[in-house]
Amino acid sequence: MAKDLSRRRFLGVAGAAAGAAAGPSLAKAADAKPAGGKLRIVAVCCSPRKGKTTAASLNVCLAAAGAVDARIETELIELAGMDIDGSLAAGVPLAPGRKDDFPKLVEKLADPAVGGIVVGTPVYFGNMTSLCKAFLDRCMVFRKKDFALADKVAGVLAVGGARNGGQEITIQSVQAALLCQEMILVGDGRPTGHFGATVWSGGKNDVTEDAFGMATAKNLGRRVAQVALRLAGQSPAGGR
């Protein structure tokens, strides 16, 4: 009998394999309850360089989110130094002796207390980093587990080496993956109000010198927090 090698069957098997590895973490997260009315906004930094321009930009974004309301808590997760192999999403097993750090992210992101997730990435050749792509590919496990990220607010931040270095293209590329998770996408809020946070590193490590980029980062953080609060049935302090 010919084997069924259809793409749908292949992805189903791959998702099941990925889900098996993260299953206990997802089950634990599903049973968790938000404590004390707190709502968490998590930023995932997909730069291979720890503590550099993308992390700094995300910290500005998170500070703005936290300033919206006292009930907002924030957390920055840096993927730099973690072993996250995107091939596992396709059912390809890890090489012997190689570790996998993705499962420990699963419980954090699926936690019901997490109302919003901001994905930040540098721009490499007009698109996201390979680390960001591997992270998004591994997020297949959430789809296979009842769309565990559904209805969480999502925003994207991109840092480029030029003012117009492909940030918006990169943001839209990341957004396409987040849409597949049934997340609720927002851009940077007014007054900049476009696709997301577009930061220019200017060839320096101090992105805070980019006034426009920092404004978009702040507006993105504020917007994610405001919408997350509304979806949780809580009005943001100060309205809007």
Polypeptide structure, described:
This protein has 240 residues and is of the alpha/beta class. The protein has one domain: Rossmann fold (3-Layer(aba) Sandwich), CATH 3.40.50.360. The protein is built from 7 helices and 6 strands; from the N terminus they run αβαβαβααβαββα. The N and C termini lie far apart (62 Å).
Care to give the gist of this entry?
With 240 residues, this protein is of the alpha/beta class. The protein has helices spanning 7-31, 53-66, 103-110, 130-138, 140-144, 167-179, 211-231, and strands spanning 39-45, 72-78, 114-122, 153-160, 184-185, 197-200.
Supply the key terms.
240 residues, alpha/beta, Rossmann fold, six-stranded parallel sheet, 7 helices, globular, disordered N terminus
Backbone structural class: alpha/beta
Distance between termini?
Answer: 62 Å
Q: H/E series, N to C?
A: HEHEHEHHEHEEH
Please tally the helical runs, counting DSSP H or I stretches of 4 or more residues.
7
Arithmetic mean of pLDDT: 87
- Uncertain parts: 1-11, 28-35
CATH class (first level) name? Alpha Beta
Q: What profile does the largest beta sheet have?
A: 6 strands, parallel
Overall shape: it is: globular
Quaternary organisation:
single chain
The CATH topology corresponds to Rossmann fold
* CATH architecture tag: 3-Layer(aba) Sandwich
Strand content: 15-25%
Percent in helix: 25-40%
Number of domains: 1
Any idea what the radius of gyration is? 18 Å
Specify the CATH homologous superfamily.
Flavodoxin domain
Number of strands: 6
